[in-house]
Records
---
Amino acid sequence: MSSLNQFFQAWQKRKEALQSKGLDQHSNKSMESVSDVTLTTNVEENIQLIQAQFGKCDDLVVRRFQTKSKAQAAIVFIDGMVDRNVISDFIIRYMTTPDITYQDPATNELDLTDKLRQIVRNILSGCAVLIIDGCQNAYLNNTRGWDRRSVEEPQTESVVRGPRDGFCETLCVNAALIRFRLKDPNLRVRHMVVGERTQTDIYVMYIDGIAYPPMVEEVIARIESVHLDSVLESGYIEQMIQDRRWSPFPQIQNTERPDKVVANLLEGKIGILVDGTPFGLIAPAVFSQFYQSPEDYYERFYIATLIRFIRIISISIALLLPSLYIAFSSFHPEMIPSRLVIAMAAGRSTVPFPSLIEALFMELAIEILREASVRLPGPIGPTIGIVGALVVGEAAVTAGLVSPVMVIIVAVTTIGSFASPSYSAAIAIRMLRFPVMILAGMFGLYGIMLFLIVILIHLSSLKSFGVPYMSPLSPLNLNGMKDLFLRAPHHLMKRRPMMFHVQDKIRIREEDNPK
Amino acid sequence: MENQQRNFGTWQLTSIMISSMIGVGILIIPRTATKLLHQMGWLGPIAGVLIASVAVAAIVYLGNQFPGSTFVEFMPRIFGGAIGTLCVFLFILYQFLNAGITARLFGEVVVTSVLPQTPLEVIIITLLLLVMFLCCHEIEVVARINELLIPFLLFPSLLIPLVSFMNADWYNLLPFQVESWKQVMKTGLNTYTLYTGYELLMVYFAFAIPGARLGMASVTGMSFALVVYLITVVAGITVFGYEELQRLVWPTLELVKVTQRTGWFLERFESAFLAIWVASVFTTIGNMLYATIFSLRRWFRKGIRFQRITAIVIMVPLFFLTLVPQNIVELFSYTQHLTAVGFLITIIIPILLAITQFMRNQFNKGREVNNEKGGT
């Protein structure tokens, strides 16, 4: 045993060494190529310096002009990333019109630097850089302005009642959507840049005084330790900072809804916004994200509670119904009421396959249909879906390939999986359906139960930023139970959920609400 | 040790206790309880709980005396190195054998009643693989999984006897008299095995949150188990009568089978019952084997990797062990032998430990008083 242990230790050491080597190699590859020099006082030299960094880039615009004090000057920016009106009206006109005595360009954000690397980075993020002869510092003007999608209704998380605005692709707009709902000076925003080549901006948002400071630090430390060359969507960050990278369950919630982010910030969680994607992240996540929707809090609590139960049932159906059918029809037919079993047997009499094959075949068909209808162009998508489902289903039954009960089951399963408000949670359930079906085909109900226990063991071992995934169910927290399956009336939820180690525990103070 | 925090709450300890106790035993309890006592068989679980609760009290006392340490640490401290180590060894061995017997019993039930075409070995292997998966995790997962699976245990164990009362003939409980108290004692010594599983608390109490009410957890757990066993035995006697119970191998399963006139959407329940019962059996075996492997880990002062390797390695002998009994009659006789050994380990050793510790405390207190007075 000891030699085995030694072997493991050696292996571990080697792994660590490789990791640290890998880290050394990372460190800002693309910016490394920019030589870390300072500007000179000569305009032409400076332009040469900057142009050298971009190579022969044709979208790099250099506009030379003479200032009112007859000095040579130039503006350098990238075409398409800047607001041209700002450059012509507030930089060039300001600098050239002799009547204006003001010296600097009139842009809303202005910085001075002579570091070439910083200049290059700013040009790449949409700044216009103003260089003036005889002045070693360059002006970095915030002229960012590119065509962006406006705020629209979120596609994946629609609600019947609730705000209709969703995140868009621009980070500052998304942050503003949150600020607009949460006018709390304690809302903190930390800016980070991840991605060696994409240099993606990331905001980490939390409420100071509610969020647990070590958790905030942990989130920031994990994002800092992400070394990717590109971050094109928040999914990159999500997958790199989650606790267990091999788990099928999403350990960080994603959402398109600013109201959901605000509600979660108020529960002591931490929001992560990534530039270039309408999907924000919420950490830590717990299992209840599978069936909770912001709408639950907007409707009256009876209805919200009922709808939560319906969602839980539909998630269970999405996970278990096909495998229950397999188990019942091939192992435990005695459990089905006798009239139904006769009807089912009559329906199955022409089917040449065992029920496992039949179910796998149908589930596969429906998955293909589903994937195809996502790709199909807008107007014909639903049509193809309906035609495919109806025609193929009907024809398959008539041809005797599948039994009618199977068609019902597949249809109900698919509809059930759409009832979950979170797409990434639903997709985990959708995936786990297949191993359960195979186990049900091997061991019947016993197999289903085995797999459920495996999932439960895995779920109880999962943690998201130190918060057990199954909390508040396990470890049991009666206060948290108010907002788990039930949705207690707002006036009864006086305390914030404890599992996120909130600092300000009271949500509604007694003295504010005299009876 | 490593960063194993003490974070088991009172409810988690209660659920560990309940699910360790209630396992395969409930499937045969109506038969064993009525064997000697006939229609008064329901006294069996009560006599059993009286015997077991003495040991539970001893274990709670030990748990309060040695917060944060498992039996691996406190047995040698109380009994001294040699005897303590022997006790630790016996305890681990007992848990190991008990887990094997339980797995085999459950395999027999499944194979005879729900999956007649499936080989027994397959059922046992899958169950052991599941337990192995659990054993590869840290100890807090055990507490959480017990907590999560408690509903799977609560519903069938309370619902099935209650529903089967529909077929009950209450005159089967009469005459209401005890023929000999000696028989009650004998049955008690037999039925106390239903409550074994409480000795695992010698491991799990070590991880109780400081301030968790160990006594409360044990009393709740014991009384819940008592209620479940009591109504199961009463249901067995009233539905079948004690003579017929002697001829049934799995009386509780038969109870489920006769419960079919309910007109619900399922026609028969035994497959569903056994499927749900997998959870309960899994927690029983899982808790036992986890305690075994975890105490080995504590014994050798190793980390989680040792635990994982042990979990994988130990399953092989365990599997072959479960196949030693040739048939179900032999299996029941092995169970009887194990009960005798279990009596030593689960009753006598904890009580002796508690008494020794108590005496030592008294002695030390006396000495301290003397010291305060200025020495002897």
---
Amino acid sequence: MTVLSWPKDILAVLFQLLLAGGGITVFAVGAFVKNKPKSLLFSLAIGSVLSAAVAALLIDGGRMPFFQMLDVGVYARFFNVLFALVAFFSLLFSHQHAGLRQVAGDEFYGLMILAVLGMSLVAGATHWLIFFLGFELLSLAFYILIAMRRDDLPGNEAALKYLIMGMVSGGFLAFGIAMFYASTGTLDMPIGLADLKKVVSPTGMLLSLGLILSATGFKISLVPFHLWTPDVYQGAPTPVTALLTTGSKIAVFAGLLRILMLSSNWLWAHATPVLWTLAAATLLTGSITALAQTRIKRLLAYSSVAQMGYAVMGVLATREDGGLAVMFYFTAYALMDMGAFGAISTLCASPESDLDELENYRGLGYSHPWQAALLTICLLSLAGLPPTAGFIGKFMVFKAVLQAQYIVLAVIGIASAILSIFVYLKVIVVMFMRSQKDMAVTSGFGVEARLAFALILFGVIWAGVFPSPLQALISRIITSISI
Amino acid sequence: MTIPFTHLLFLAILLFAMGAACAMTQKNLFMILIGVEVMLNAAGIAFVAAAMRWQDMNGQVMALFVMTVAAAEIAVALALIVCIQRRTRSTNADHCSMLKG
């Protein structure tokens, strides 16, 4: 048993410390500093997220600190940088949005930072205790963030739906971990998952994995567990939706990917049929129901359900380069979904309500060319058309799936991709049709949102045209963790 | 006399199933919360029982954390339910049906 070594172990978790410290500082400043400058809380939040990102980029954690409970190696650092980036964009989009909707208090910024902390714990956990705590921290922060507009009944309702689903999935996770512990005698992920000799009760182990898979399935909205997604996305403040759809899903998925990569062949053989079914159901349901939607946030919600289907497809091929495909796909997904919801968050029908009906997007391409351009590029990327990051991501996923001999699943995936092209093109066509009257009001398109727009556009195009540096980076990460 | 591990595990699974059934079928928001609470406590029992079986403290620590997290969740949930109850004058989950599509 190792003793905590100062300052090495503290430096290794500097990312998490900066976020925790930043979140608490925002709360404290909000509570105790009177007459604070208008953007003080916002700047503090941005500062803490950016400094955490720099810490994750620069500091190589080396060995796992704190009794091997938390991974601070390259895999976790990659996702930590991604979460910090997503939170940075989300904060940029939320500054004016939150100001306009009167929610820009310390809770809003503080909880956003704490949600990112939860994400990094879930993605980095190698011990079930950390996984559980991160999962719950993430959920708790989002329950409040979704209900941030206290007098807004749809927002409260969305939070209630997420809360009930989240609490039930938290119960599933806790019991799943309990069964894991009961059948292996350890709470350590690598030991319990990989070492077959440890498993005294195979039934208990399978039950445990089933419960944990359903708990994570709720969070990443795989199909039998996806029913909350459209309602919550519609009711939540749009920058929060953007963080929810990118950050929290990627975090839980990163945890799931780690669990599956660590699993023994025996567990893997039992997991593949389940994952296959989930992937097929998610792909088809997501893209077919998206066709019928007339509100943009619900449409994007169903599209994000389908996007998770592609990710599960990639996970199935983990043993054939699928890990590389999934991690690339998530980088692309983070940028494009953040861009799509970010563009929507800068538009509104009236200062109090979102521009949600698809009909109101008529003529947006002429009245608000910047928002329309970002939305168009991100939708094209979500549809998987070149020359965007989404195209390369989908291409890599399909390649890995075909290499792993899942031919039927690949056909289902391609069918779903073709269906979803119709969905996204429908939105783009509406935006560039002439309209008599302009429905959209800009809800604040300040310098922060412009910066986020430029960075996301650059990222989506750059990862689509020159994907090889990112691919090389990810494959180095993958080789270093496949133990 | 020590109670056999399988008995304890059976109790935990039974409680978990009852809690899950309550959380998924009940309409009243408070009943849903109680169901979730029973699910989490079932997990707590399973942790403590397994800790006894393996003669290992990790399970007991985990049970403590589960209780703490459950308390935090209930605090947020009650605040939200009060907020909704003020607006809709109801604690029935079916009365929350503004978001549809």
